[in-house]
């Protein structure tokens, strides 16, 4: 009998993909760095029983309505705003993501970005490499304290809670805003629920971890940045389109807020001529929230397992919406 056909949209380590080869014919896009062109993705989807996709691949109605054999899309990310999960469900296609395995790694990154922005780590590293360090001086690259300050976490899911845990180790006061109350974070970490407005007014560090949905798109704009303290630092490890970037640029230029640490952008990859990247008080990194070798390996293994389970009629975990 003909084996089912799996298309993987980036080159992944062969030893990980091997797990799938017992049950399927597997083809991978041949580059790790360059995204599969849209027309190739559409052609492959039209033949595939399963797709292993990246968050940069658009799995939309056009793709889903021309994929007659498709049974599963396993997305290598916890976020899934790149996938039209409603059309997928209507077409009987299962969609999975990679929750849990990336929680701590992404929280580590969010907290590193907060520390790096507050303590001007990137500016300091640049300063020394450019040979500008001529003498020690009292306020040289002085940043702002993190310990004993107030953190406001917008999006208190598993990653938010893991960030709160790190913040509690820094003796921070923890505020949060979320669709629903997180009672575990309240009882175990002393996190306090706030309206978005209250959180923005009171926090020294605002950490955005929301997924991108119709409700969260453009959640942070001019009005929200104006509500923040002038000393506030804004961190985004959620999704870029949650922020109106022109308004963030203005807020930073006007001194409405002090700095921003950004892992995600409206358009990815962001152009290196983007006005945000001209500001010294912005620490920008290329969407590497879950990018540790250990975690990315686990995420790939989980995607392969989900596909294998689906193709062999076993129960599939982490089906969306979850
Ligand atoms: C994801 O997996 O959705 C996150 O953006 C991690 O980087």
What is shown here, in short?
By secondary structure, this protein is α/β, with parallel strands linked by helices. It has 12 helices and 12 strands. It folds into 2 domains: 115 residues, Rossmann fold (3-Layer(aba) Sandwich), CATH 3.40.50.720; 182 residues, NAD(P)-binding Rossmann-like Domain (Rossmann fold, 3-Layer(aba) Sandwich), CATH 3.40.50.720.
Report on the structure:
With about 325 residues, the protein is α/β, with parallel strands linked by helices. The chain has two domains: about 5-100 and about 295-310, Rossmann fold, CATH 3.40.50; about 105-285, 3-Layer(aba) Sandwich (Rossmann fold), CATH 3.40.50. Helices cover about 35% and strands about 15% of the residues. The protein has twelve helices and twelve strands. The protein has a seven-stranded parallel β-sheet with strand order 8-7-6-9-10-11-12, with helices on both faces. Strand 4, helix 4 and strand 5 (about 95) form a beta-alpha-beta unit. Helix 5 crosses helix 7 (about 160-170). It is globular. The model has no long low-confidence stretch (mean pLDDT about 95). Bound molecules: (2R)-2,3-dihydroxypropanoic acid. Belongs to the D-isomer specific 2-hydroxyacid dehydrogenase family. One of its GO terms (cellular component) is cytosol. One of its GO terms (molecular function) is NAD binding. Keywords: Oxidoreductase.
